[in-house]
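User: I've been trying to design a sequence by hand for this structure and keep getting stuck. Would you show me what you'd pick, starting by listing the structure so we're on the same page?

Assistant: Good idea, let's start from the same input. This is the structure you sent:
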Protein backbone atom coordinates (compact mmCIF):
# COMPACT_ATOMS: atom_id res chain seq x y z
CA UNK A 1 0.00 0.00 0.00
CA UNK A 2 2.82 2.35 0.96
CA UNK A 3 4.54 1.53 -2.30
CA UNK A 4 1.37 2.41 -4.16
CA UNK A 5 1.27 5.79 -2.48
CA UNK A 6 4.86 6.50 -3.40
CA UNK A 7 4.19 5.56 -7.01
CA UNK A 8 1.13 7.79 -7.22
CA UNK A 9 2.90 10.64 -5.50
CA UNK A 10 5.91 10.31 -7.79
CA UNK A 11 3.69 10.47 -10.81
CA UNK A 12 1.94 13.53 -9.51
CA UNK A 13 5.25 15.30 -9.03
CA UNK A 14 6.37 14.32 -12.52
CA UNK A 15 3.08 15.66 -13.84
CA UNK A 16 3.28 18.96 -12.05
CA UNK A 17 6.87 19.59 -13.08
CA UNK A 18 6.20 18.66 -16.66
CA UNK A 19 3.35 21.13 -16.96
CA UNK A 20 5.83 23.96 -16.57
CA UNK A 21 8.66 22.38 -18.54
CA UNK A 22 6.68 20.98 -21.42
CA UNK A 23 6.67 24.10 -23.52
CA UNK A 24 10.32 24.76 -22.82
CA UNK A 25 11.14 21.28 -24.07
CA UNK A 26 8.85 21.41 -27.06
CA UNK A 27 10.05 24.69 -28.51
CA UNK A 28 13.69 23.72 -29.10
CA UNK A 29 12.54 20.27 -30.22
CA UNK A 30 10.40 21.86 -32.91
CA UNK A 31 13.43 23.80 -34.11
CA UNK A 32 15.65 20.70 -34.13
CA UNK A 33 12.98 18.72 -35.93
CA UNK A 34 12.65 21.38 -38.59
CA UNK A 35 16.37 21.47 -39.32
CA UNK A 36 16.70 17.69 -39.43
CA UNK A 37 13.83 17.59 -41.89
CA UNK A 38 15.60 20.15 -44.05
CA UNK A 39 18.77 18.08 -44.01
CA UNK A 40 16.76 14.97 -44.80
CA UNK A 41 15.34 16.42 -48.01
CA UNK A 42 18.62 18.04 -49.05
CA UNK A 43 19.57 16.89 -52.55
CA UNK A 44 23.04 15.63 -51.74
CA UNK A 45 22.09 13.77 -48.55
CA UNK A 46 23.35 10.20 -48.80
CA UNK A 47 21.17 7.20 -47.99
CA UNK A 48 23.44 6.62 -45.06
CA UNK A 49 22.68 10.09 -43.69
CA UNK A 50 18.98 9.80 -44.43
CA UNK A 51 18.78 6.63 -42.36
CA UNK A 52 20.13 8.46 -39.36
CA UNK A 53 17.88 11.45 -39.94
CA UNK A 54 14.83 9.24 -39.88
CA UNK A 55 15.97 7.68 -36.58
CA UNK A 56 16.55 11.15 -35.14
CA UNK A 57 13.06 12.25 -36.27
CA UNK A 58 11.49 9.15 -34.74
CA UNK A 59 13.22 9.78 -31.45
CA UNK A 60 12.21 13.44 -31.44
CA UNK A 61 8.64 12.33 -32.02
CA UNK A 62 8.96 9.91 -29.14
CA UNK A 63 10.07 12.72 -26.83
CA UNK A 64 7.14 14.80 -28.07
CA UNK A 65 4.82 11.88 -27.30
CA UNK A 66 6.13 11.55 -23.75
CA UNK A 67 5.87 15.29 -23.16
CA UNK A 68 2.31 15.24 -24.51
CA UNK A 69 1.31 12.39 -22.20
CA UNK A 70 2.90 14.11 -19.23
CA UNK A 71 0.95 17.26 -20.07
CA UNK A 72 -2.24 15.19 -20.08
CA UNK A 73 -1.47 13.98 -16.58
CA UNK A 74 -0.91 17.51 -15.41
CA UNK A 75 -3.98 18.99 -17.07
CA UNK A 76 -4.87 22.20 -15.27
CA UNK A 77 -7.77 22.22 -12.90
CA UNK A 78 -9.77 24.36 -15.29
CA UNK A 79 -11.11 21.33 -17.12
CA UNK A 80 -11.32 19.31 -13.98
CA UNK A 81 -14.80 20.20 -12.86
CA UNK A 82 -16.97 18.28 -10.49
CA UNK A 83 -20.22 17.88 -12.39
CA UNK A 84 -23.28 15.71 -12.45
CA UNK A 85 -22.45 12.95 -14.82
CA UNK A 86 -24.21 10.10 -16.50
CA UNK A 87 -21.69 7.43 -17.38
CA UNK A 88 -23.83 5.95 -20.15
CA UNK A 89 -23.98 9.33 -21.87
CA UNK A 90 -20.27 9.78 -21.33
CA UNK A 91 -19.47 6.41 -22.91
CA UNK A 92 -21.79 7.14 -25.84
CA UNK A 93 -20.15 10.51 -26.41
CA UNK A 94 -16.67 9.02 -26.25
CA UNK A 95 -17.42 6.16 -28.62
CA UNK A 96 -18.69 8.71 -31.14
CA UNK A 97 -15.10 9.88 -31.41
CA UNK A 98 -14.13 6.48 -32.79
CA UNK A 99 -16.76 6.21 -35.52
CA UNK A 100 -14.25 6.72 -38.31
CA UNK A 101 -11.41 4.76 -36.76
CA UNK A 102 -13.54 1.69 -36.18
CA UNK A 103 -13.99 0.67 -39.79
CA UNK A 104 -10.46 1.76 -40.65
CA UNK A 105 -9.00 -0.58 -38.05
CA UNK A 106 -11.56 -3.31 -38.54
CA UNK A 107 -12.65 -2.92 -34.94
CA UNK A 108 -16.16 -3.03 -33.59
CA UNK A 109 -17.14 -1.16 -30.46
CA UNK A 110 -20.03 -2.81 -28.66
CA UNK A 111 -21.84 -0.93 -25.91
CA UNK A 112 -23.74 -2.70 -23.15
CA UNK A 113 -25.10 0.10 -21.04
CA UNK A 114 -27.00 -0.58 -17.83
CA UNK A 115 -29.97 1.79 -17.78
CA UNK A 116 -30.15 1.44 -13.97
CA UNK A 117 -26.97 3.46 -13.56
CA UNK A 118 -27.67 6.58 -11.52
CA UNK A 119 -26.18 9.92 -12.40
CA UNK A 120 -23.73 11.23 -9.82
CA UNK A 121 -21.29 14.06 -9.29
CA UNK A 122 -17.74 13.32 -10.36
CA UNK A 123 -14.72 14.67 -12.25
CA UNK A 124 -16.12 13.86 -15.64
CA UNK A 125 -13.26 15.09 -17.80
CA UNK A 126 -10.79 13.05 -15.73
CA UNK A 127 -12.94 9.97 -16.26
CA UNK A 128 -13.07 10.76 -19.95
CA UNK A 129 -9.26 10.76 -20.01
CA UNK A 130 -9.22 7.32 -18.37
CA UNK A 131 -11.84 5.83 -20.69
CA UNK A 132 -10.14 7.19 -23.80
CA UNK A 133 -6.88 5.63 -22.65
CA UNK A 134 -8.54 2.27 -22.12
CA UNK A 135 -10.01 2.39 -25.62
CA UNK A 136 -6.71 3.53 -27.12
CA UNK A 137 -4.90 0.61 -25.51
CA UNK A 138 -7.58 -1.78 -26.73
CA UNK A 139 -7.22 -0.49 -30.30
CA UNK A 140 -3.45 -0.89 -30.07
CA UNK A 141 -3.85 -4.46 -28.79
CA UNK A 142 -5.82 -5.42 -31.92
CA UNK A 143 -3.66 -4.63 -34.94
CA UNK A 144 -5.66 -7.13 -37.00
CA UNK A 145 -9.03 -5.95 -35.77
CA UNK A 146 -11.48 -7.32 -33.25
CA UNK A 147 -14.02 -5.96 -30.83
CA UNK A 148 -14.15 -3.75 -27.77
CA UNK A 149 -17.08 -4.28 -25.48
CA UNK A 150 -17.81 -1.46 -23.07
CA UNK A 151 -20.24 -2.48 -20.36
CA UNK A 152 -21.57 -0.34 -17.53
CA UNK A 153 -23.12 -1.86 -14.44
CA UNK A 154 -24.79 -0.48 -11.35
CA UNK A 155 -23.62 -2.46 -8.31
CA UNK A 156 -26.45 -1.56 -6.01
CA UNK A 157 -25.23 -3.28 -2.84
CA UNK A 158 -21.96 -1.28 -2.93
CA UNK A 159 -23.57 1.89 -4.28
CA UNK A 160 -20.96 1.70 -7.00
CA UNK A 161 -20.72 1.59 -10.75
CA UNK A 162 -18.45 -0.54 -12.89
CA UNK A 163 -17.26 0.15 -16.38
CA UNK A 164 -15.68 -2.83 -18.11
CA UNK A 165 -13.56 -2.59 -21.25
CA UNK A 166 -13.08 -5.97 -22.90
CA UNK A 167 -11.01 -6.41 -26.02
CA UNK A 168 -10.23 -9.42 -28.18
CA UNK A 169 -6.61 -8.41 -28.60
CA UNK A 170 -3.17 -9.86 -27.98
CA UNK A 171 -3.58 -10.09 -24.21
CA UNK A 172 -0.80 -9.98 -21.63
CA UNK A 173 1.39 -12.51 -19.87
CA UNK A 174 1.80 -12.55 -16.08
CA UNK A 175 4.97 -10.53 -16.15
CA UNK A 176 3.44 -7.74 -18.24
CA UNK A 177 0.31 -7.75 -16.09
CA UNK A 178 2.39 -7.23 -12.97
CA UNK A 179 4.16 -4.22 -14.45
CA UNK A 180 1.53 -2.27 -16.40
CA UNK A 181 0.97 0.41 -13.79
CA UNK A 182 4.65 1.33 -13.55
CA UNK A 183 5.43 4.68 -15.17
CA UNK A 184 7.28 4.34 -18.49
CA UNK A 185 6.67 0.59 -18.81
CA UNK A 186 5.67 -0.13 -22.38
CA UNK A 187 5.80 -3.05 -24.78
CA UNK A 188 5.09 -0.80 -27.76
CA UNK A 189 7.63 0.67 -30.12
CA UNK A 190 6.06 4.11 -29.90
CA UNK A 191 4.50 3.75 -26.45
CA UNK A 192 5.19 6.05 -23.51
CA UNK A 193 4.07 3.79 -20.68
CA UNK A 194 2.22 6.68 -19.09
CA UNK A 195 -1.37 5.92 -20.07
CA UNK A 196 -2.18 3.35 -17.43
CA UNK A 197 -0.24 4.98 -14.57
CA UNK A 198 -2.32 8.06 -15.28
CA UNK A 199 -5.51 5.98 -15.24
CA UNK A 200 -4.58 4.38 -11.92
CA UNK A 201 -3.71 7.74 -10.42
CA UNK A 202 -7.01 9.33 -11.45
CA UNK A 203 -9.17 6.41 -10.36
CA UNK A 204 -7.33 6.08 -7.03
CA UNK A 205 -7.83 9.80 -6.50
CA UNK A 206 -11.56 9.29 -7.02
CA UNK A 207 -11.56 6.49 -4.45
CA UNK A 208 -12.14 3.83 -7.07
CA UNK A 209 -10.22 0.82 -8.29
CA UNK A 210 -9.07 -0.81 -11.50
CA UNK A 211 -9.01 -4.56 -11.98
CA UNK A 212 -7.51 -6.28 -14.92
CA UNK A 213 -7.65 -9.80 -16.27
CA UNK A 214 -5.98 -10.97 -19.42
CA UNK A 215 -5.05 -14.01 -21.45
CA UNK A 216 -2.35 -14.08 -24.09
CA UNK A 217 -3.90 -14.39 -27.53
CA UNK A 218 -7.46 -14.01 -26.23
CA UNK A 219 -7.84 -10.53 -24.88
CA UNK A 220 -8.02 -8.27 -21.89
CA UNK A 221 -10.63 -6.82 -19.58
CA UNK A 222 -10.14 -3.69 -17.51
CA UNK A 223 -12.83 -3.02 -14.93
CA UNK A 224 -13.03 0.46 -13.45
CA UNK A 225 -15.06 0.59 -10.26
CA UNK A 226 -16.28 3.90 -8.88
CA UNK A 227 -18.04 4.39 -5.58
CA UNK A 228 -20.95 6.81 -5.57
CA UNK A 229 -20.53 9.09 -2.59
CA UNK A 230 -23.74 9.39 -0.58
CA UNK A 231 -24.08 13.13 -1.15
CA UNK A 232 -23.18 12.98 -4.83
CA UNK A 233 -26.09 10.85 -5.95
CA UNK A 234 -28.87 13.13 -7.10
CA UNK A 235 -30.52 10.74 -9.49
CA UNK A 236 -33.74 10.76 -7.48
CA UNK A 237 -34.37 14.15 -8.98
CA UNK A 238 -35.23 13.41 -12.57
CA UNK A 239 -35.16 17.08 -13.51
CA UNK A 240 -31.47 17.61 -13.00
CA UNK A 241 -29.66 17.96 -16.27
CA UNK A 242 -26.92 15.39 -16.76
CA UNK A 243 -23.64 16.23 -18.37
CA UNK A 244 -22.09 13.88 -20.88
CA UNK A 245 -18.67 15.32 -21.56
P1 LIG B 1 1.53 2.56 -23.64
O1 LIG B 1 0.16 2.36 -24.24
O2 LIG B 1 2.14 3.86 -24.03
O3 LIG B 1 2.45 1.39 -23.87
P2 LIG B 1 0.17 2.23 -21.13
O4 LIG B 1 0.52 2.66 -19.75
O5 LIG B 1 -1.12 2.69 -21.68
O6 LIG B 1 1.38 2.67 -22.04
O7 LIG B 1 0.21 0.64 -21.18
C1 LIG B 1 1.34 -0.05 -20.68
C2 LIG B 1 1.42 -1.44 -21.27
O8 LIG B 1 0.34 -2.24 -20.81
C3 LIG B 1 1.33 -1.50 -22.79
O9 LIG B 1 2.56 -1.24 -23.42
C4 LIG B 1 0.87 -2.94 -23.00
O10 LIG B 1 1.95 -3.83 -22.90
C5 LIG B 1 -0.02 -3.19 -21.80
N1 LIG B 1 -1.46 -3.03 -22.12
C6 LIG B 1 -2.26 -2.02 -21.74
N2 LIG B 1 -3.53 -2.21 -22.19
C7 LIG B 1 -3.52 -3.37 -22.88
C8 LIG B 1 -4.53 -4.12 -23.58
N3 LIG B 1 -5.80 -3.70 -23.67
N4 LIG B 1 -4.16 -5.29 -24.16
C9 LIG B 1 -2.89 -5.73 -24.07
N5 LIG B 1 -1.89 -5.07 -23.42
C10 LIG B 1 -2.21 -3.91 -22.82
MG1 LIG C 1 -1.53 3.47 -23.65
Amino acid sequence: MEKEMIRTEKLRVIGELSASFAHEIRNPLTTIRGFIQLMDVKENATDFEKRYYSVILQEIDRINGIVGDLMDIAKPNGDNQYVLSNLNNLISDITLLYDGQESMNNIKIIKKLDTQIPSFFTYTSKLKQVFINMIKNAFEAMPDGGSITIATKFVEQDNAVEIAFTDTGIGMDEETLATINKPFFTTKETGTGLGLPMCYMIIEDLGGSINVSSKVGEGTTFVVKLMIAEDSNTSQNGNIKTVGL
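That's my pick for every position. To get oriented when you compare it with your attempt: The first strand starts at residue 82 and ends at 85. The first helix runs from residue 2 to 41.
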